[in-house]
Amino acid sequence: MQQGLAALQAIGTEMARLSHLHWLAEVYGQVGRIEEGLAMLAEALAFVDKTGRREQEAELYRLKGTLMLQSKVTSQKSQVEEAEVCFLKAIEIAQHQQAKSLELRAMVSLARLWQQQGKRHEAHATLAEIYNWFTEGFDTKDLQEAKALLAELA
Fold first, then answer.
1. Cβ contacts of residue 47 below 8 Å, gap of 6+?
2. How many other C-beta atoms are found inside a 10 Å radius of the C-beta of residue 126?
3. Residues 118-134: pLDDT tens digits?
């Protein structure tokens, strides 16, 4: 993936760069290379600002929040605060873009964090609001995950 990203950069194509940065950050997170994942996300968010291509911005912030919770660089308290800010920003961006699926994913991440903080009622109420917006697609992974989390929070 790193070689592919470097090759894209070398030939001057920017079209797939954002997706590759996102995928690479996600893979780094999955293999425990959190700081490298956060570095890829920083690059991806800078690319978003530079180009104005915002279609993945909400998901980038959601992933950044997820990785922040796994990071060992800063104190646990600041990690949690930063993660919450990222999740809220992802939700705000998704709402602005009217991207309900991305809003749901970010809300699930935020609800999990709030659940860990003992904010079960707030987590349930906010997650239920977006979950109840959907009228179909209940066999999708994101909606199944949200339903399971709602059951845990009830």
1. 14, 17, 18, 21, 53
2. 16
3. 999 999 999 999 999 99
